Amino acid sequence: MSMFVALLHSIVLTPDRRVIMEDLRALAEELGYREPRTLVSTGNLVFEADEMRPHELEVALEEGFEEKFGKHVDIIVRSDCTWMALCSTNPFRDGSGDQVIVRVMRLPVDPAKVEALKPLMAEGQRIAVVGGDLWIDFAGKPSQSKLLSALTTKRLGVGTMRNWNTVCGLAEMIM
Predict the structure, then answer these.
(1) Of 14, 12, 5, which is closest to residue 54 (Cα–Cα)?
(2) Are 115 and 167 contacting, i.e. CB atoms less than 8 angstroms apart?
(3) Which partner for 100 in 18, 63, 75, 95 could form a disulfide, CB atoms 3.0-4.6 Å apart?
(4) Is the separation of the CB atoms in 47 and 3 below 8 Å?
(5) Which residues are registered as beta bridge partners of 37?
(6) What is the superkingdom listed in this entry's lineage (predicted)?
(7) CB 155: neighbour CB atoms within 10 A?
(8) pLDDT greater than 90 at residue 34
């Protein structure tokens, strides 16, 4: 048995309806996963499952989510070991926990696509690719940055963003 972290790209079903975390935990249980737990209300799930490849879990969760909620949502799954490895690679530990964000990718981000982001960066902002994931230090509120709106699936591939505080919170849940 292993522990996994699942990150939903979105929990918004319609403009006036979001998936509540109780329903997300129920979905995980329906799929046979054990001890599902959530962190904050933004689609962060930790659970135990038999030894499976993360991609198999992504497919099962995405199909289950679509069947239960009527909408496809990209879901990224990492094993506990790969999550802890991601935590150890933050290149911007000197940044603020709510301003340092990692875009956790399903497949490694294309370095050429990262280069194309650089003209959108403001003074003080930093980006780095580590282990295929894109790390960004917004050096201010991400919502006030031109860079944020460019970090899309269409531009970069399937992935989802979490700030450093959330990354650490999930790590604490699996320790």
Answers:
(1) 5
(2) no
(3) 95
(4) yes
(5) 46
(6) Bacteria
(7) 13
(8) yes
